[in-house]
Queue: 2 jobs
Job 1
Amino acid sequence: MNAIFKVNETFRNDFTFCNSPAAIRRFPLPFAEDEYMYSVNIEPHLPGPQGSVSEFAFDVDEHYVAECHEREIVLANEPLRFQALPHMMSAQWDCLELIMESLARDYPKHFSLSKRNNHWQWSNGPLNMEQRFTFGDAATLPRPPLDYITRQAQGDFVVMDQREGNLWCEAGMVTTQADWSLDFDMGMTFKEWHGPVPLAHEMGVFDRAIKFLLNLRLGQPVRRLNWTMTVNPRLDTSPENYPHWGPDRASVNAANAGDLVHLRVELQGLWRLPRSNAVVFGIRCYLISLRELATIPKWARRVHRVLKKLHPALVDYKGLTRYREPAIAWLAPFDDGSPTTPGTSPE
Amino acid sequence: MLITGIKSKPIYTPLSFDASGRYHILLGAGVGANPLLRVLAEMKKTVPQSMIHARVLFKNASAIEATAGNVSESELAFRAVETVELRVFNNVASLLADFHILATGSLMGTRLYVAGPESFIGLAMQIALQFNLNQDEIRAEECGSLARRVFCIHCRAITDEVVTNIVKCACQRWLLVRDHYSRRLAAYMGVMADAEAPGELPEMREVFR
Amino acid sequence: MSAQTITVEITSIAQVTPLIKHFRLKATTGGYLPAFSGGSHIIVVMRGQKRIHRNPYSLLSSPNRLEHYEIAVRRMDESRGGSHFLHDVVKIGDQLEIAHPVNLFGLEKQARKHILIAGGIGITPFLAQLEDLRCGEVPYELHYSVRSHEHAAFLQHLGTREATRVSMYYDNEGATLNFEELLAKQPLGTHVYVCGPAGMITRVIDTARSYGWPNSHVHWEQFNAPPVGDAFDVFLARSKISVHVVPDQSLLECIEAAGVEVPYLCRGGVCGFCHTRVLELDGELLHHDHYLSANERTTGKSIMPCVSRAKAKRLVLDL
């Protein structure tokens, strides 16, 4: 990670968030073709190319410090955006270990972890934090373990207990979500939690996914990409705060769509946790404005085509109804009809 | 945003006697007494009376939405069933408190049967969850009013007995009632109906009768 | 999806009963082994002179102590070689490969009470689970049945720490575990776990059912060693090769030896991961797994190659 942290950018009010040219080029475009439909697009979470978002277990990028600040703002107003049922304590520790070990291993310039038996010392350079604690003893941390560590990580985390041949959403930190509520969904099965997703149930996507995830193995995490769109670079598009961000959707026109409309991509990672046998679902959100996206000609053509052909049920589910047309209109001048090369690379 | 057809909406099936169980707890509200009577008739032949406990809610104004004649008939029938331990309650809270006590003293091998409006089933399920009753130990049949308990996703207030597609919450927002259901909260999700365009509300319709 | 392996070194071997040996393993790279949850097993890969054995063994060491793993191995009467290899061939300092732990026998975290029932070598997964239970607030009890005092493995291990929670049953003293009494009057939310000989598992399952316990509260684990049987031939349709299955190797082992990978987790007929479609069959399948339903067995469309065999003129698998 050579990027310099953009510590002052914001994801609300004045929305100063933007991507550097390097961040644009590494953006995880989820469209390998000019059309989009669901698939069980799960692949092993193996290290990707150097500099890519999948190079490491958890990607730390130029937005790290700003995203951690944004999370603190959300939690200060709405503490229930972090929740954990009592039986999830061992899973909380598992998550803390997974994230600390990964960050310390993958970004040694910024993070360090030393262990002597259960006596751990954690150091987070970018956020200027130091903590000594006893692994397994929650009283030695200032907050519950999952709360503590996910305030120092980008993306949302949901922890699922495994029992009765099912996965149950029973702990999580969710402040950068695409219109779903941890508070409401706590205690649900994997399928209930994904209940509001159209079409995919009928296609058997969740039946196959759950079967796969129940057999997820230690040391063999998997990942997939998902996407939607958001008006303004707003990370917190929670149902709780829909009254605040809902009106944004009506503010888009063909002239401002390039700056207001953002493609929102989730890099979802799933890990089996060792002590709890639970599964942690990491949902890391990447934002890019259409204007930034259009600096890559192939991507502009592709996104234009994907939006034009998108299934009506997905248009509604992704909340695009009010601004899909302006977005397509804004992208149209970038699409000369020439073919795109297969895959997602910039050219 | 998906409003209807959401897969978290529970599916209920008509109650029937689960012969694999050893002890049986029956909870009913209002017209829910009728399915319980049906199950009782099935189990009476084989299950000793000491292993059956019934708790029924009558005279709850909200629960007795269906024909009064039907309910009073059930009530009479229930009172006539002297072979099981039956307690009748006139409010949900005291019935649920009694169920909690009953569950505390109950043994593995118990099956739970719940019949009544979904709001009643949901509240009974919340207690069943505390006792780690799994899906293979519980049966539920929805009958009577389809009125919903609605959880406001913005202020967390619960509005009971919602029969319309939109409802005004205590926080003064108009909520659209979605099919998304939480067993933990025993409620459906209500989300602001006119957030994107203030004042642009769908026509109010009575849909949960 | 076959497992990545970890190379371990045997640091101690102890004969704990006339039939059971106890092994301690550490990572050859030094440092900690992967964390795990009580009830997990590892697959131990043993490279014998003639063939490779891959056997599942429950981890019995504390999930809180990851400097080493511990397993216990009972010498099997009709061993095809795995337990024989560990009992008679390996020595301290030898290296083995193991797969990451997998848990198919975890404790239910929302249980209101746990009852653990062990028979003989079946004590092993519970030893690790007790480490977790001891730190929690949920009541639990262990019922441990063995042939005689000399066969009671890890008793000292239990005796000092779990005296009030453990009930011992010695067959030779006529002390038998009364399953009816144990399961008749347990509070709502109790889960029962059993690991031991097949007869004991069946007794627990049947007794629990007769007292109305639902399946979701009854948990058991028994790794079947792949049984020895007659040789047979199988054709792998997608790989387009024939494989000869010898008497003392499993179908899965022979398929692997022919260079075809089959996904697996437990290699003991439990997890269902190696579930394979049968495309053609002239003869009968000899099912030895705990996974397929009675109905699936009779239709003859599926086989679990880790433990099951066939007596057939022709068998074609979707591999």
Job 2
Amino acid sequence: MPELETITETGEYILNVGPQHPATHGVMHLRIKLDGEIIESIEPVLGYIHRSIEKMSESLTYRQLIQMTSRMDYLSAHINNTGVALTIERALQVEVPQRALVVRTILAELTRLASHQLWWAATGLDLGAVTPFFLGFRDREVITTIFEEVCGSRLTMNYIVPGGLMEDIPNGFAERVNKFLIDFEHHLPEYDQLLSDNEIFLARNVGIGILSKEEALSFGCSGPMARASGLSCDVRKWHPYDLYSSLEFNEVLLTQGDCYARYKVRIREMYQSIRIIKQLINQIPEGEYQAKVKKIIKLPEGEYYERVETARGEFGVYIISDGKSSNPYRIKYRSPGFSNLASLSALATGGNIGDLVAIMASIDLVIPDIDR
Amino acid sequence: MSLSISLITYFPIIIRLILSVIGVICFFAILGLFLVYAERKVAAGMQLRLGPNRVGVFGIAQTVADTIKLITKESFTPGMADKFLFFLAPFIVIISATLALAPIPMAKGYQFWNIDVGVIYVPAMASLSIIGILMAGWASNNKYSLIGAMRSGAQIVSYELSVGLSLLSIVILTGSLNFNEIVMSQDNGWWIFKGHIPVLISFIIFIIASTAEINRTPFDLPEAESELTAGFHTEYSGIQFAMFFLSEYVNMFIVSAVAATLFFGGWMPFHIGHWAAFNDIMNYIPGPIWFFGKSLFVIFLIMWFRWTFPRLRIDQLLNLEWKYMMPISLVNLLFVTLITIMGWHF
């Protein structure tokens, strides 16, 4: 469609949602063709915050480029960092100490909790309920405080280095996490009281934006988005890393594929994350927190691909090394948000413009993750 | 000669008019400031926050400061807007809110205008505001504003039916459209207690429908910020925005005052049948306290909705009215009529 046209020849209305719009959670631009309030077509326009992270990473050393991944999906910063560190460790065949693995897993699950809390808060806000926003942030604040004590940073952690952790965990880490778990288990039922069982919330979400299993597969959706459509894709189960192979947890699978199923998957994942942390938090082993890795890392020549499960889905790291230099020849990230966004057109076309907000909230987009 | 005589004759009336206009404006300003403050405190209480607490004691001057800020800001008019209609719209909205307040008795004999058709007059005046809202949406030359205004139009016109029907149930019970007579009819108990379940149903319908009338959550689609940024007043700023904002709160007060008057007896103290001694004790609490106390209770209910519920979708909103609330109101009205004819109420 032409740039400045607002009404087409056939009488459809063209509405630009974004780049600055409260429902897009960032600088994303959706160009929507409307027939009355019915969406005829929807086209995401990307590129507003492209920072060329992959290209920049080619001129950074392996230790430096980890911190760029915190700036992608900033709500899963720990898990993204783990993904890159994991690729480097497996390429170098480094044995990561047990203590580092345990702490990494705990922090990854705390990150997932924090991300889902923020998503829950924003979902409420998008659907017009302001109070969930504050309840979600109440619990997230505790987690970010724990992160701050661990690594001095609340959002873009950069705590994980190839071979383990940057620093040892502070004293009282386990007590703080335990206290948080006790509080949060009391708070989670409040989430259900306020939104999950609310009639209006059900009316806005049940049967809205249905994604079939085949579509989820063909769009490359992953994470809660795909699991709500019945597609089993949990990297923690299929390609275990860290300590996930030895832990007891369930992959949450639902089959409805609508907005409410995606909502339910995330809520239930929070319970699973709590379960995982509980298995580990009282058994953090003593010992080294970092394996011996050279200061200047050079990967052997070859191609490496590893994946981790972030709060939004499968995050893949693909590194080509020429074996000579201390920075990658080429690096490519497979970010979950980009593929999940691809399904937006299938979800929203033919629906009501009012449903778009609910659908966007249920995809759980983080724009810097889509637009790297 | 005759001119000066007529001036002298009309002088007291002119003075009285000016004084009442000043009085109404002051009442409005205080009402708006207080309700905004109350809303922020109620919201804070429900959201684990403190709310305004820096300007003045307990932050009571916060809304005054906000108002001064809004007044001193530029009222920006978009370049492509229809300038005259854009300017006119907020006045229509606020005038309709002002007029609707006139016949509501705040204490025995304290009322701006004692009119015989008060119960019809209030919704009639309140629904004039839709003209201002449509005007604002059209004149802004903004797609979000236009969609917001159209939604608002559909919503207000639909929900007026339920509001009207639930008001009628009290009119049938009392046989009068005059607010004073309705209050006096509750001398031996408020209608919500006297009228059995049908009156309770019409009270619930009234609260739901009037929440939709005043565009508040869960029916705040005209200004659904995650979809339409700010709906029909997206392009408004400064004092013009303040007028929309003030009229929203005045409308909320009117709705609550009407609910309090019709269902909770207005300024009438809490009386139980023929318990003369008990009723005498209750009479020691003055009428305005009863009236404002009841109105504030209903306002609290409406605020409670806002800070708890998510928002409906526009088609769900219209379905709720046409498929559920309207039929229920109609059937309920029959029951009220039956109760009145058979004299089953207390």
